[in-house]
C-alpha cells in the first residue's frame, strides 16, 4: 500500500509541477528542493487525499517535508 501511495504522490506532484519528471524525483528530497511552494504543497495534499478517498485534516499532514514522509503519514492514517 505504501508504494502505491508514493507512486500516487509522485504522479500528482508531476501534474502540479510539469517541469518535474517522475523518473528524476527522489522521494527523500524535500518538496522545496523539488520546486514546490506552499500553494503547490497544499494542492498536492488535497489531490492526494481526494484520490485516496481519505478524510484527514490537512494540518495533520502539514509537517511532511518529503514524499516519503507524506506517504508514511498517509499509510499510518489509512490503516
Describe what this molecule looks like in 3D.
α1 packs across α2 (about 40-50) and α1 packs across α3 (about 65-79). With about 80 residues, this protein is mostly helical. About 55% of the residues lie in helices and about 0% in strands. It has a single domain (about 1-79), classed as ACP-like (Non-ribosomal Peptide Synthetase Peptidyl Carrier Protein, Chain A). It is globular and about 30 Å long.
Distance between the termini: 10 Å
Judging from the principal axes of the Cα atoms, what is the shape?
A: globular
CATH superfamily: ACP-like
Q: What is the overall number of helices?
A: 3
CATH architecture: Orthogonal Bundle
* Biggest beta sheet attributes: none
List keywords for this structure.
mainly alpha, 79 residues, Non-ribosomal Peptide Synthetase Peptidyl Carrier Protein, Chain A
